[in-house]
Protein 1
Amino acid sequence: MAGLLLGIETSCDETAAAVVAGGRRILSNIISSQVELHQPFGGVVPELASRKHLENISPIVQEAMKAAGVTWEELDGIAVTRGPGLVGALLVGVTVAKAIAFARRLPLVGVNHLEGHIYSNFLAHPWLEPPFLALVVSGGHTDLLQVLDYGRYRLLGQTRDDAAGEAFDKVARVLGLGYPGGPRIEAVAREGNPEAIAFPRAVVKDAPFAFSFSGVKTAVLNYLNRCRQRGETIAVADVAASFQAAVVEVLVERTLAAAAACGVDRVAVCGGVAANSALRSLFQARSAEAGIEVLYPPPVLCTDNAAMIASVGYYRLQAGHTASLDLNAVASLPLASWG
Ligand code: KG4
Ligand code: ZN
């Protein structure tokens, strides 16, 4: 089989559709962001997200098919994100995927969104094969896991509280930088001193590869309150740079320690926070010393997209893991092995 899959992704605030060949070659990758819609509220409003997905999904799917130059008859399957995410948002994608699968008599594949993030590295680096270590750093997750094979994962550690991206978003909000926080903090931090304020680097007792980011977020809040009480002006760029340094250092150090402990010399970073340039440069500096190769997708494949969903779909379909038409969305779907 040529392995042409249409991917559909609506788990949060991006309506996306893509056509991917053989799990690796992107023929089209259409993403409609709802950032402007949610901006006045300082975060994603679930009900608004669902409604916007409903409006966008058909034109986006049609655009993905047109841009790929593919007919419905040429497709080998439809892959859709079934979780984790906002349930109302997920349902839009799942329902549309089921309707297309039924109407066109195509195999349907349900995909875990986190697995999609990991597979974005297969799109970016077509030569990449398991095994490797993956660091998933998004708005909802911070997971460190071993990718043993396609569909075979071993979780080494995850965040005990806030995800890395969530910490970026919350700190950006208290600094008055707006939403989405990650790119705003990154931009402002460029003008600041990352050593200006010593924010904590939390370790989790008895779990060397786990993370905790609520402490650093609280430390930023306390610092800002202290400055206000004393009537001191707040150096926003220094706060942003120091916070970013604290998060990035923990991510890089713990990931490289996990790679050494597992005897793995290749790490694939993915998810929205993988777009962060401070994270990339610290990985570059430290990984060279450790003799570990660190890979990332380009920024457009770090954040939510449907090409990564089509990629997982291809491998699942090859392994015979298709879904029936009663496929449902699951808001807190865990990442489970299937291979
Ligand atoms: O993977 P993603 O698009 O959606 C989820 O699955 O969550 O990740 C979005 C998260 C947000 O928290 C956003 O602030 C963060 O990724 N993010 C960044 C950057 N770009 C996006 N964080 C730090 N630096 C960035 N450049
Ligand atoms: Zn995501």
Protein 2
Amino acid sequence: MKISVIGCGYLGAVHAACMAYLGHDVLGIDVDQQKVDNLNAGKAPFYEPGFPEKLSAGLDSGKLIFTTTPQAEALKDIEVHFIAVGTPQGENGAANLTYLWEAVELILDNQPNPKAVIVGKSTVPVGTAQQISARLETYNAENGTELSLIWNPEFLREGFAVEDTLHPDRIVYGTETGEENWAQQQLDKVYEIPLGEGIERILADYATAELVKTAANSFLAMKISFINAMAELCEATGGNVTTLAQAIGKDKRIGHRFLGAGLGFGGGCLPKDIRAFGARAKELGVPEAVSFLTDIDAINKRRRDRAINLSVQMLDGDVKNKKIAILGAAFKPNSDDIRDSPALEVAVRLQDMGAEVVITDPQALPLVAAAYPQLSLVENWEAAVQDAELVVLGTEWDVFKQLDPVAVAGIVSTRKVIDGRNVLSPQDWKNAGWEYHGMGRS
Ligand code: UGA
């Protein structure tokens, strides 16, 4: 199929490369010339395992190309346009849909193929698809075309983006009536290979398809904040949240995944999406339906406060001029994304309080340097912990999880560690003479 992907950020670039891998002719469109140049040169604009290989393969096969200025001729041939632009947090937490509408108008301004299918993948407030569909109807009436919209939310995780795009848990389609139509048949052709592998396709109306995405991210955020609330109770009682999570997770109805207590969630999705959901529920007159999301957000923010307070406490009441090593800057391992990163917020706040913070991360340092020039960055953990009076593990990269407490003890000034992700062995670290504090681990 001939397809376009409008918006080549994390979601769009990976989607474009994976669609080329599935055998389609893909035109990636983005407004950022630098990003487009990099993508065309086979340079991934972000760290994502497996993506550079798919990108190169697509470029080499001639099936993948990126542009800032799509030619009307090229757009006319496109059978399926995917919209994958960002919907950043706007006023009062609501999603900013400027780029989304620009993408819709870009398609319409270029006299698209009269039977093109437009597929929405961006995360949007419920009700947006209906508005886009209404815009397409007006255009169809004026131009004698049959453009049709499908809402097809994306569930990929950073760090597993290629795998999640090619082998998702499920594929959700939202259509106007919630029933099959010719546009859905076109999308089935795009996804012929994953559907052929037996991945379930769930058909819904627009509102449900949009809600699936926000509900899924809200549920994940709720699970993390739930266990972090239990961590607070463990801190108040001397309990151990790791054992608690292990025990409740054995119940299959609860499950172990996303019960990792620690510094909480960050990134470009979960925090923004729960706020946008709350703002949308308010607009719809049902704020109470998701009022619990405010608590989820608050619990999450409190974990960062907890790490700061613990640092102050462990450094005898004052962090001023004390050397603190922060291990990790990305919001999670296997990513260089620093958006709303808990580890980075802790680093910046401790630095603002007068501590001498040194931070390291296997992938995120270039982005940290650009956004936080005031932070002192070093290439590896050995340099970071040199003479440190406190070590804070903020992101659970394997290299930090596997640290040998005896070896690290020989480099630091004082053996004090905060395990912000509860991934170190308290016993091993204590045996090596460390004052160890996890997050809700007695
Ligand atoms: C999330 C969802 O998991 C994806 O399904 C979704 O498609 C994506 O948002 C999106 O909307 O685009 P992602 O932001 O890549 O994916 O990250 P997650 O793996 O969900 O992790 C989010 C945060 O939660 C990270 O900071 C992570 O460290 C934290 N986390 C995760 C915990 O604190 N504890 C856990 O047990 C799990």
